[in-house]
Design brief:
Strand order of the largest sheet: 1-2
Domain Phage shock protein PspC N-terminal: 11-68
Number of strands: 2
Distance between the termini: 40 Å
Order of helices and strands: EHHHE
Helix content: 40-55%
Low-confidence stretches: none
Transmembrane segments: 38-66
Number of domains: 1
Organism: Colwellia hornerae
InterPro entries: Phageshock_PspC_N
Keywords: Membrane, Transmembrane, Transmembrane helix
């Protein structure tokens, strides 16, 4: 028995500029995974404290490469 799912809307990862604090990366990730924005932001700050260089580079790259959704 198999179920086939059809989605009417294709989900894509984008920056969320309506709920942004810096560039909208964390808000976009939260929207994509359907999580609270504050949880993603706290996780990003925690990662920035533990791995500052890797997190900083990843955030800047994501801010540059992710498309913007208005």
């Amino acid at each position: 028995m198999s179920y086939q799912r059809e989605y009417s809307v294709k989900k894509t990862l984008t920056k969320d500029v309506t709920h942004k604090k810096l560039s909208g990366v964390c808000a976009g990730i939260a929207k994509y995974y359907d999580l609270p924005r504050i949880a993603i932001r706290i996780g990003a700050i925690g990662a920035l404290l533990i791995f500052p260089l890797a997190t900083g580079v990843a955030y800047v790259v994501a801010a540059i490469l992710l498309p913007t959704k208005h």
